[in-house]
């Protein structure tokens, strides 16, 4: 018997005729996140009086005709939907309470509010895909030593449930099934749960269900009644450690399932379903031992280890100064204390080498790799593996900042300056460094930011802490500075030779390779040494145009020219759009004037590769860019081939710049530095300096000295000068002065509104309307509205509005809900907080 109007009564009678006090009768409703294919979102449910629900709990709720898993998001006193209260369905039960640890829940909420993103979207970014979709509530027996107990004291429904579960070998049924078989299931369940005879759990959706496989386990080796054949099989099993996959054993022994079955019946072996973890497994590596640190490394390690609780350390180490070794030695004691560590890296391109170093130090089973290129199953399994709380190291890209490690002792962001830590779309447009700062603060653990070329944000947070409000003004804690000014073994940084390509042309050299670079490549070919050739763009060339009429081949869906692509000689010649991926066959004649003279401009990796083959036929090279590393494991394969000396030259794009540690590389060539310098973005110089310094840093990391040859049409550019002299400080000083003068980050803050629509007029009008409303607000400077630099992408027209303001102006920011109301249905609006790409 329930008394329904609990607002009028404080005392409620439950079924056992016991009285208890309803303490929180204010929140009768809960908003839950349902993640169901085609119909996900927030839904409101009534809270049954006997349940206590907290945000972050996993619930089971009725949804249509099904029972689904859901996350409790927010408690409500009143329903926030226009439905008669009796039409609102009830939450069925709490499946797991406290699923999100409170610090983690707080983190998700901070991300949602700082990036103006609905909490569901943040949860979606944090959870592996499809975790809740079609999840099913199940009930299972808790195994007991003494099964002979009498349960006569239980109520009839509880007894019925128990009998059903006991009649089943695995002692496990879906709740839905039990509901159909037993009357008053809830009551019976509550009783059984209370005395700890059963537990309820959420079974993951079908696609993500743990992968099970039959395994054979050795249990008895004393020969009582084995046939010769069976004895052989048992011996194989014993020699292989007493446990093998069923299929493996069948294959090794060329035997049949029935033979194994009879061995199981005789009690020699057990055949069981075991879970196959779909986590990315590394190769078995020889264990390596900690290196003897040099003095700078010692100091850095001591700085980190002295910390007690939250603090931020900027580890500013020149390329090849041994930052990774510091990370490794900082993590070792964390694991020993039973805690876990999180290591974030910019791109998977560099993870194979880095993960290998971690695996070699700590062993395979301590390391998980987590990034978006994993399959859903792999992501799900890796994610569950983290929840167990065993001390471990998770290495991952941006999204791994949400890795649900319960006992976090240290967070490391390697190459912290890298822009791939920022998500442009979809929302939340978070920066993993900002989220890492919050997370370290909430978990009260240190955060180490490592780089040879620290971002201006991090640099400023160290040097001018007291005077400048850094961009992440939410975190107010000192940043400690720890420099590694020298390379390991005092190896010199490689000399950087700047080649003026205008001069080359004047002297009659029309090749894309300067005479210096040609001579250096020849030397590689002759001596069998190794080098890296860096090209700013992938693909063959930036665009194709007609020499007769000047026609440029453009994408039919975007306002950009198509890029020429040819993977290898003889392969089809294609034109590809780098914005929407539209592909067409390269036309034989100009579509405009039918002239056969269509010419490529610019020089992408393909063009450079073809030119190499022509000029240096004996030089073996490997292309390393997003075209050649598309397949899973391709990064590792190509880098291994190169490390094994199968080629003289690694030719590639940005990917090459990040953390490659190949001691045999003596030459680094930059085909054209200019592509990086002339971007119309206030961060272009910073990015160019970082990229070029990182590329240069790949040379001379071993015993042989390195050499860098940098080709450019603007040798006098300040960025080129700074790279030439490895002068971070002078570059930063000049750059910061400019930023301050124009109130750009890290001094001012930016918010970019990106609008897009299929309708060019509608989006322009909307941008205008929003700008008019915003311009009434004196709290910030308004730039635009202006069309994006590529106005149309995939047939959507794009406009943007940039807000620039002092960090103190935060309270005066507009009400984004009102701004969103100005967008008609056909116009989408993304609010990019602290944008890195304004183009
Ligand atoms: N104390 C040490 N003694 C000897 N060798 C070391 C020591 N520390 C690091 N090394 C080795 O020096 C090389 C460069 O170190 P590492 O790759 O860690 O530098 P890094 O600063 O991370 O470089 P980058 O930022 O350029 O990627 C590695 O091969 C590493 O094994
Ligand atoms: Zn033409
Ligand atoms: Zn396109």
From TrEMBL:
Cofactor: Zn(2+)
Catalytic activity of the protein: ATP + H2O = ADP + phosphate + H(+); Couples ATP hydrolysis with the unwinding of duplex DNA by translocating in the 3'-5' direction
Annotated ranges, domain Helicase ATP-binding: 304-472
Chain sites annotated for binding Zn(2+) 1: 546, 549, 590, 593
SUPFAM superfamilies xrefs: P-loop containing nucleoside triphosphate hydrolases
UniProt enzyme class: isomerase
Keyword annotations: ATP-binding, DNA replication, DNA-binding, Helicase, Hydrolase, Isomerase, Metal-binding, Nucleotide-binding, Primosome, Zinc
Domain Helicase C-terminal as annotated: residue spans: 585-739
A Pfam family assignment: Helicase_C
EC nos: 5.6.2.4
Note on how the cofactor is bound: Binds 2 zinc ions per subunit.
Residues that hold Zn(2+) 2 according to the record: 555, 558, 577, 580
Function: Initiates the restart of stalled replication forks, which reloads the replicative helicase on sites other than the origin of replication. Recognizes and binds to abandoned replication forks and remodels them to uncover a helicase loading site. Promotes assembly of the primosome at these replication forks.
Family affiliation: Belongs to the helicase family. PriA subfamily.
NCBIfam families (alphabetical): priA, PRK05580.1-3
PANTHER family cross-referenced by the UniProt entry: PRIMOSOMAL PROTEIN N (PTHR30580)
Quaternary structure, from the entry: Component of the replication restart primosome.
Protein name: Replication restart protein PriA
Native organism taxonomy: Bacteria, Bacillati, Cyanobacteriota, Cyanophyceae, Nostocales
């Amino acid at each position: 018997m329930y008394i329904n109007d609990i607002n009028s009564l404080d005392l409620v009678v439950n079924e056992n005729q016991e009285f208890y006090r309803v303490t929180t009768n204010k929140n009768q409703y809960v908003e839950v996140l349902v993640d169901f294919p085609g119909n996900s979102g927030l839904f409101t449910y009534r809270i049954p009086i006997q349940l206590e629900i907290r945000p972050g709990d996993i619930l089971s709720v009725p949804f249509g005709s099904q029972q689904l898993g859901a996350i409790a998001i927010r408690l409500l006193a009143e329903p926030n939907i226009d439905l008669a209260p009796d039409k609102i369905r009830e939450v069925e039960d709490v499946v797991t309470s406290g699923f999100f640890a409170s610090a983690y829940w707080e983190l998700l909420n901070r991300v949602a509010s700082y990036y103006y993103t609905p909490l569901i979207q943040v949860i979606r970014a944090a959870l592996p895909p499809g975790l809740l979709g079609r999840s099913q509530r199940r009930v299972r027996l808790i195994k007991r030593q003494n099964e002979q107990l009498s349960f006569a004291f239980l109520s009839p429904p509880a007894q019925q449930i128990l009998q059903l579960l006991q009649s089943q070998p695995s002692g496990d049924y879906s709740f839905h099934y039990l509901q159909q078989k037993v009357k008053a299931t809830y009551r019976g369940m509550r009783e059984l749960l209370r005395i700890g005879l059963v537990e309820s759990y959420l079974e993951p959706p079908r696609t993500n269900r743990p992968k099970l496989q039959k395994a054979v386990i050795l249990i008895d080796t004393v020969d009582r009644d084995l046939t010769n054949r069976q004895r052989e099989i048992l011996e194989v099993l014993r020699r292989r450690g007493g446990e093998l996959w069923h299929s493996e054993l069948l294959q090794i022994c060329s035997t049949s399932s029935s033979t194994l079955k009879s061995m199981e019946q005789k009690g020699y072996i057990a055949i069981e379903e075991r879970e196959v973890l779909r986590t990315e497994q590394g190769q078995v590596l020889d264990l390596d031992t900690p290196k003897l640190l040099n003095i700078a490394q010692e100091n850095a390690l001591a700085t980190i280890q002295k910390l007690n609780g939250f603090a931020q350390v900027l580890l500013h180490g020149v390329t090849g100064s041994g930052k990774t070794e510091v990370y490794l030695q900082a993590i070792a004691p964390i694991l020993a204390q039973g805690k876990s560590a999180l290591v974030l890296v910019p791109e998977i391109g560099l993870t194979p080498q880095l993960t290998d170093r971690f695996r070699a130090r700590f062993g395979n089973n301590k390391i998980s790799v987590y990034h978006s290129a994993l399959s859903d199953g792999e992501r799900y399994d890796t994610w569950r593996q983290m929840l167990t709380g065993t001390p471990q190291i998770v290495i991952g890209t941006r999204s791994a900042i949400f890795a649900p490690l319960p006992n976090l002792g240290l967070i490391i962001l390697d190459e912290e300056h890298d822009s791939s830590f920022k998500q442009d779309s979809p929302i939340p447009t978070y920066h993993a460094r900002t989220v890492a700062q919050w997370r370290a603060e909430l978990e009260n653990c240190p955060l180490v930011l490592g780089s040879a070329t620290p971002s201006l944000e991090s640099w400023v947070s160290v040097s001018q802490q007291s005077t400048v409000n850094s961009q992440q003004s939410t975190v107010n804690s000192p940043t400690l500075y720890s420099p590694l000014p020298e390379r390991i073994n005092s190896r010199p940084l490689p000399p950087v030779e700047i080649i003026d390509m205008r001069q080359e042309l004047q002297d009659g050299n029309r090749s894309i390779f300067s005479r210096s670079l040609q001579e250096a490549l020849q030397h590689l070919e002759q001596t069998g040494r190794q080098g890296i050739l860096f090209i700013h763009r992938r693909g063959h060339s930036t665009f194709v145009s007609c020499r007769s009429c000047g026609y440029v081949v453009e994408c039919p869906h975007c306002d950009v020219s198509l890029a020429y692509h040819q993977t290898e000689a003889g392969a089809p010649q294609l034109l590809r759009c780098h914005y929407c991926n539209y592909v067409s066959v390269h036309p034989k004649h100009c579509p405009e004037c039918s002239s056969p003279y269509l010419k490529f401009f610019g020089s992408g990796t393909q063009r450079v590769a073809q030119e190499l083959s022509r000029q240096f036929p004996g030089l073996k090279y490997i292309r390393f860019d997003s075209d050649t590393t598309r397949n899973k494991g391709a990064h590792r394969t190509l880098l291994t081939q190169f490390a094994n000396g199968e080629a003289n030259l690694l030719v590639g794009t940005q990917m090459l710049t990040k953390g490659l540690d190949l001691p045999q590389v003596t030459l680094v060539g930059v085909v054209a530095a200019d592509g990086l310098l002339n971007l119309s973005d206030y961060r272009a110089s910073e990015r160019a300096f970082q990229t070029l310094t990182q590329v240069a840093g790949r040379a001379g990391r071993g015993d042989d000295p390195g050499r860098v040859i940098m080709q450019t049409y603007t040798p006098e550019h300040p960025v080129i000068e700074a790279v030439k002299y490895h002068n971070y400080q002078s570059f930063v000083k000049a750059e910061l002065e400019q930023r301050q003068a124009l109130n750009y980050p890290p001094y001012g803050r930016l918010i970019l509104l990106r609008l897009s629509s299929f309708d060019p007029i509608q989006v322009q009008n909307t941008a205008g309307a929003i700008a008019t409303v915003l311009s009434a607000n004196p709290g910030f400077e308004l730039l635009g509205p202006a069309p994006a630099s590529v106005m149309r992408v995939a047939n959507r027209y794009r406009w943007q509005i940039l807000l620039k303001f002092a960090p103190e102006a935060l309270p005066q920011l507009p009400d984004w809900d009102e701004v969103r109301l100005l967008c008609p249905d056909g116009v989408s609006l993304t609010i990019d907080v602290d944008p890195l790409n304004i183009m």
